[in-house]
Design a protein that fits this description.
The structure is a homodimer. Chain A is an alpha+beta fold. Helices cover 21% and strands 27% of the residues of chain A. The first copy, chain A, has 13 helices and 25 strands. Chain A has helices spanning 58-63, 71-80, 86-91, 93-107, 114-118, 145-155, 230-233, 249-255, 263-266, 304-309, 323-327, 347-356, 383-386; strands spanning 32-37, 46-51, 54-57, 121-123, 127-130, 138-141, 171-173, 179-181, 184-187, 190-194, 200-204, 208-209, 212-218, 237-244, 247-248, 269-271, 285-286, 311-312, 315-321, 333-339, 366-368, 394-395, 401-402, 410-419, 422-435. In chain A, the strands form 7 sheets. In chain A, strands 7-6-21-13-14-16-8 form a 7-stranded mixed β-sheet. Chain A has a 5-stranded antiparallel β-sheet with strand order 4-3-2-1-5. The longest helix of chain A has 15 residues, at 93-107.
Amino acid sequence: MFLLDHTHDPLIGSWVPGADDHPDFPVQNLPLCIFARGTDIEEPGRAGVRIGDHILDLSAVVAAELIGDPAALAAATAAGRNGSLNDVFALGAAPRQALRHAVHALLREGAPERDTVARMLTPVNDVQFRLPARVGDYTDFYAGIHHARRVGMLFRPDNPLLPNYQWIPVGYHGRASTVHVSDNSVVRPRGQVAGPDGSPSFEPSSRLDFELELGVWLCDSPTPGTVLPIARAAEQVAGYCLLNDWSARDIQSWEYQPLGPFLSKSFATSVSPYVVTPEALAPYRCALTRPAGDPTPLDYLSNDLDLAVGGLDIDLEVEMSTATMRAKDMPVLTLSRSSSKHLYWTVAQLIAHHVAGGCELNAGDLLGTGTISSADETGLGSLLELSRGGQEEIRLPSGETRTFLLDGDEVTIRGRASHPGRAPIGFGECRGRVLPS
Amino acid sequence: MFLLDHTHDPLIGSWVPGADDHPDFPVQNLPLCIFARGTDIEEPGRAGVRIGDHILDLSAVVAAELIGDPAALAAATAAGRNGSLNDVFALGAAPRQALRHAVHALLREGAPERDTVARMLTPVNDVQFRLPARVGDYTDFYAGIHHARRVGMLFRPDNPLLPNYQWIPVGYHGRASTVHVSDNSVVRPRGQVAGPDGSPSFEPSSRLDFELELGVWLCDSPTPGTVLPIARAAEQVAGYCLLNDWSARDIQSWEYQPLGPFLSKSFATSVSPYVVTPEALAPYRCALTRPAGDPTPLDYLSNDLDLAVGGLDIDLEVEMSTATMRAKDMPVLTLSRSSSKHLYWTVAQLIAHHVAGGCELNAGDLLGTGTISSADETGLGSLLELSRGGQEEIRLPSGETRTFLLDGDEVTIRGRASHPGRAPIGFGECRGRVLPS
């Protein structure tokens, strides 16, 4: 899945109008999604592939018998499940890779099936997206070391990183039932908040935050009882998305001892609708270098190939707008420019750690990387960091200020990868707007 | 669901042989389960009701048209789903209560359908059990205050209970994929364990523990966005079970800061196969009294009816045997005699808290109460407490000693409720045996 082939060739374009110049979805990307035509929430979801500003309906491709096995198997599996990619994820890498090749052949310049396939495209503005898969379990990691250090600094200035951080990919179980697809509304959660006298009250959170993360959709893990070596852990990845781990900081600080975050996180998690495959991201693998002097990972987390190309080089941005900014037609404010290169652990390490003790992973399980902030101040992935724990106001172009999110605020995460000589690809967006409690 | 009727009458018996003298499953109990005949793991699960030493097949009851709606709806829903009670749970209280009445009428002494129904019974020794429902999300609470205080004492002798404990039902998200039905084997997990010099190694846990808990199966929660008042929270309970939250203490102490337990818990959670309904437990409701001087719960956790009968009076026991004890035919050792009366929060309070911030609950979600220990030394719900953090050896009748579990050890949790003038009912058992890593 790290190999490059003609589907990555930036010189091969698509006959779909607008695809070649699309910043996110040229023919080299081809992410999977679940979409429905129209706005009826009862309309069943269909499996699709995004190309330019259109969605290719995989059930139509299957019905027209345009592709052969094993790509047809993947497409039929996706198309037959009425609204979830779980079974496609469960097929693993080979059928997914074959599907990529088959769809690329249908959409590339000069494809003989062009006229037939053109009728299977729906403009993206005419569809709504569904969650790509039923989330069995959702796990959120803490693999952004600059976030961990900066948040730790707020609470423990002398000892910001806990002793386990550089040894163990710290993570915890999140809430699967409240993972929603962009662009969703997020109702401001209510909860217990500590008062100045030590006794709490139950009220709407006044420290509502976002967290910039990557999401990882998983295939099935091996049979329970067998060991998954780090060298094979990357094979468990079905694809990537953007993820916003909405967080209520005031609820979190009161509830989280000793068992970790609970209701401060479980009211909502947003993911972008597209599953960007490991194949599409192959040109953007990179090394994640550890600072000199940091401990060497234990054997079960160490692998030469993973060391060399286990990282991802994806530019990540957070934009924000307020109701006032939108009413005045002001442009959004970019709060943060970060990168997945700032992660301390590779996704393979997260997975190898997750299964090492006997925990079963299933197709459709979702991982969050944890908040990805840069070492410097340009790429802070949360308002907790941007406002230094709520101590410093952020000035907006509208003249407003913020420490945490107010009702009506909208947060959008974007992700794009580009390099000279390679086709740029992107993730679309993960957007959510805060509604009053 | 707190009302008593003729189905609770201890003077009404059953025609099923052995049911009237059964310590757990007389006709006043009638718990639901998913079972399969024979030992083929491919055999689909069927919905059943336990009575005495038999299982009544609900699909046979439906096929014979022995009962009318709404009980028939519940039975057909259970029988039609091939191996899960999720959809029955989702129906809520009224059809479940009607099913109880209808099954009671079929199984009570003098039932005219006796000969027909007798052919729908399978001896419990001829069946295997499946997990009663597909677990969407699993949440583990920490509502046993004596456990929380005693464990806190090991780490913070001067301040064993954290400031939030008496205000907030502390809980965290557990791993749904590794919830298994009794009687399962538990492979000793491997994981990172801190060494004496501060650097960890990856090895099999040497501090493997059990935790005595009650489990709670849930119905659907109300539409997201609507408030669930504490007065209605108990309606979300579909039934109760026994739960063993297996824990690797050495992995836990290294990994749990700052985001809580993760792989130290997620390798296995065991539940008993029977769903004991709120209706069956109606005679065993009780008050959970707070010590004088403890804070009054906030309004969203306070309700007069819940204060009066929100607790459950169930005797809980933990038994243990070793391979040596079993080889010598020695009786099991009872390690602990506890009670659900020792919980600090009612199940309605756990649920009201869980949904208060906007978290969606779904039918088949599972809650654990947290470890239920007594205030005194007779009912300690974990080896961490029994061995005082591993400092004191527990002497076994075989001459062996334990601080934590060794390979081959088997732990069984039992639960029973009884009072003079009421029919005793029980939960069966939640059993698991430790296998080597």
